[in-house]
Write a structure and sequence with these properties.
Layout: H1 28-31, E1 49-52, E2 55-58, E3 71-73, E4 78-79, H2 82-91, E5 97-100, E6 110-118, E7 121-127, E8 133-136, H3 143-152, E9 159-165, E10 175-180, E11 192-197, H4 198-201, E12 203-208, E13 219-221, E14 227-229, E15 257-258, E16 264-265, E17 299-301, H5 305-314, E18 337-338, E19 347-351, E20 359-365, E21 368-371, E22 385-388, E23 401-410, E24 424-428, E25 459-464, E26 478-485, H6 488-492, E27 500-504, E28 520-524, E29 530-536, E30 549-553, H7 558-565, H8 567-570
Parallel strand pairs: 8-10
Antiparallel strand pairs: 1-2, 3-4, 3-5, 6-7, 7-8, 7-12, 9-12, 10-11, 11-17, 13-14, 15-16, 18-26, 19-20, 19-22, 20-21, 21-24, 22-23, 23-24, 25-26, 25-28, 26-27, 27-30, 28-29, 29-30
Length: about 575
């Protein structure tokens, strides 16, 4: 392991092809991927969804937590929990939420257009269960509420615009209902509603998106086909209705919060006791007590959003990537670092004979170790040994464990000449038949599910027993800081392939070297949870200026790993 000064790299992001001007924050290459609110490369799935091949897909109702409030659907069917109803709705579009509790014959919650301007535009009214009819308040109505209203009315793409209309003289004595929506609800009944005087609330006039049309040069075409003004992109508001205007932003305008994954979220989502950014920066350095829930006077209906958040806390969360060692942050590093006990509890050594460490590897849970394909040969399965809890490759301590291998899975598309798909899974043989592997002092490292969790300029750690300064053989586990780089294809040209990642320093003095192969490149999120971002690739030379280390980009192999180990083993969250 070589160590030296750190270079901060500036991430270059291109302008969107059809946009000009300072208001444009979109990232062209990202936009081409057509990400929406169902793209778990960019967002967390809802509790009633699971992430499969990068898309949030419907769970089966029994996969929801059993605890929760019973709810009634618009087809008069009761469900044990809100999650079960939403899971059912996910598959059966006609069944949607109506109210909390069991269904009663008189239950209803309908919305309609009064004072119709066109078939898709009008002033919005609500019919409630007690035969009451009320207007929706126009004052303070955002695109979030308008999108929900239009979806409730059957316009799948949501709203084009909304405005507040002064009431007629015979209406001013009435009350209106002010909705508060997150924006992804399918019916207005899921939003919070409270009464307001119509003299201050005005009337809500909403125009729903009804027809496809061509977008002009000053507009952004949403994935769902809607056209919105470019100035409405990357502002934290879901103007498209499918979030496609907020998922590929190199910056955010107005008062939105910019996630490291280039997603813009409303500032109100920051420190709300819910992770909205993939790496948790929206909940970093927050008051742990959270924000006090606002008391709504004369509230007619409580929002189902709190129930949605509560369901998420009941889903399983894997414990991984947490070290007992205090993390030390330094701006400039000179010389190598020797790993301390429990600092890299996921690091393993792969040996075939003697005391030489052939390669490194990473414990990812169960009996599984992830390493580089070039480190192992199927024909040598019986002679490999996995060493856990080892810092010194010569000194033996009682906490060190050795495991033989039960199975080896080398990526089916691994190319030994180009080192494409340089990744392999090793299954350790358990010590006691019928029981799982449980190496002492060993913690699984988290597997990233999205390639957007960390980006160029991020400082990460690489560790191993590889050659050090002047090609000196290392006995103890060493580590160093390296920076992720975005220009890997420019540096290595025809030696670079999809699935590879570059990391290093400007002068090459921090680098993985021969013997580090197969070991972990670990990036940490805002809560110091570690993720296996890269696997050290093959190195003939190391520590050269302009020649950063090549790594296998693990996030791109999430589905492959899950297919062999089981998704429940590696999904940190119930995706």
């Amino acid at each position: 392991m070589r160590q030296g000064p750190v270079l901060l790299f500036i991430l270059y992001l291109s302008h969107h092809a059809f946009a000009q001007g300072p208001e444009n924050f979109l990232i062209e290459e990202c936009v081409k991927n057509n990400y929406t609110e169902r793209s778990c490369e960019k967002v967390f799935c809802e509790p009633w969804q699971t992430c499969i091949a990068g898309t949030c897909q419907c769970k089966i109702p029994y996969q929801c937590p059993k605890n929760g409030t019973s709810v009634c659907s618009n087809v008069r069917r009761s469900f044990q929990t809100y999650c079960q109803l939403k899971s059912y709705e996910c598959r059966q579009k006609f069944t949607k939420f109506m109210n909390r509790g069991s269904c009663n014959p008189g239950d209803r919650f309908n919305i309609l257009f009064s004072h119709i301007y066109t078939s898709s535009e009008g002033i919005v009214q609500v019919e409630l269960s007690n035969s009451e009819t009320s207007y929706i308040c126009g004052k303070g109505l955002t695109i979030n509420e308008a999108n929900v209203i239009c979806r409730h009315l059957g316009f799948a793409r949501g709203a084009d615009r909304t405005e507040a209309i002064e009431p007629d003289e015979n209406q001013v004595s009435l009350q209106c209902l002010k909705p508060t929506c997150r924006g992804m609800e399918t019916r207005l009944a899921e939003c919070g509603l409270r009464r307001m005087s119509l003299t201050t609330g005005k009337l809500a006039k909403v125009a729903c998106s009804a027809e496809y049309r061509g977008c002009n040069a000053r507009e952004f075409r949403c994935v769902n086909g809607k056209c919105i003004d470019l100035t409405r992109t990357c502002d934290g508001m879901n103007d498209c209705g499918d979030s496609s205007d907020e998922l590929c932003c190199k910056a955010c305008n107005k008062k939105a919060f910019h996630c490291n994954s280039d997603v813009c979220i409303p500032s109100s989502y920051v420190c709300n006791n819910e992770l909205d950014c993939l790496t948790g920066e929206d909940e970093h350095n927050c008051d742990k007590t959270g924000r006090a829930k606002e008391e709504e006077s004369n509230q007619v209906r409580e929002s189902m959003d709190e129930e949605r958040k509560r369901i998420k806390t009941l889903l399983p969360v894997i414990s991984c990537g947490i070290s007992d060692h205090t993390v030390i942050r330094r701006k400039r590093i000179i010389g190598g670092f020797t790993a301390q006990p429990l600092e890299f509890p996921w690091q393993v050594a792969i040996r075939s004979k003697g005391q030489t460490v052939d390669c490194g590897g990473t414990y990812i849970g169960g009996c599984w170790v992830l390493t580089a394909a070039h480190c192992v040969q199927r024909s040598h399965l019986q002679i490999y040994r996995i060493w856990t809890g080892m810092l010194d490759s010569i000194k033996y301590i009682t906490r060190i464990e050795t495991y033989s291998l039960k199975n080896m899975i080398i990526h089916e598309n691994y190319n030994s000449e180009t080192y494409e798909n340089d990744i392999a899974l090793l299954e350790m043989r358990t010590k006691n038949k019928g029981t799982p592997c449980s190496p002492p002092d060993t913690v699984p490292l988290c597997i990233p599910w999205s390639q957007y969790m960390f980006r160029g300029g991020q400082q990460c750690k690489v560790s191993g027993w590889g050659l050090g300064e002047a090609s000196k053989k290392q006995i103890v586990l060493k580590w160093g800081y390296v920076n992720l780089m975005d220009n890997c294809s420019e540096i290595y040209k025809n030696r670079y392939f999809k699935g590879m990642e570059c990391a290093g320093t400007d002068d090459g003095s921090v680098d993985a070297c021969k013997g580090d192969s197969g070991g972990p490149l670990v990036c940490f999120d805002s809560n110091n949870v570690g993720y296996l971002w890269g696997i050290v690739g093959r190195r003939e030379t190391c520590g050269e200026r302009g020649q950063p280390g090549l790594y296998t980009k693990v996030a791109l192999y999430f589905e492959w790993i899950a297919r062999h180990t089981g998704i429940n083993l590696i999904s940190k969250y119930n995706l």
